[in-house]
Amino acid sequence: MAELEFVEKVAAGAGVPAETARALTEATLRTLAERISGGEAADLADHVAHQLRPLLARARPEEPEAFGYDEFLRRVAERAGVERAVAERGARAVLRTLDPVVGHQEFTNALSQLPADIRGLAQPVPRGR
Fold first, then answer.
1. pTM for this prediction
2. Which domains does the chain have, with CATH numbers?
3. Ordered alpha helix ranges (H), the chain
4. 18-75 per-position pLDDT tens digit
């Protein structure tokens, strides 16, 4: 999937303009790369559009940083310059868009390194919420 198509899907999924979706995509992928091992981040990078690959690149060793849901969203919000609620919708849209792009097994492998609440961002929003 091309970068523009990815960003358009994120915009539609998060209900934000394309410019905000691009910022949310960049922020979420960078934050995800910090939270999973370098090997898993590289595996994901192999499947995304060329322009998105540097966002998943890690200059640090294999070990991921350990942080939870609140810190994940704080980093996304800060990097994208949005409020927390927008960051949450955006991170959800990015992860849900990433799944079919990288393949479900690869996506599941990467998400297995995350706490359940962050993994939950990739799940459909329950009805009535």
1. 0.91
2. 3-122 (1.10.490.110)
3. 3-14, 18-35, 38-45, 53-56, 69-80, 84-102, 104-111, 116-119
4. 999 999 999 999 999 999 998 899 999 999 999 999 998 865 556 788 899 999 999 9
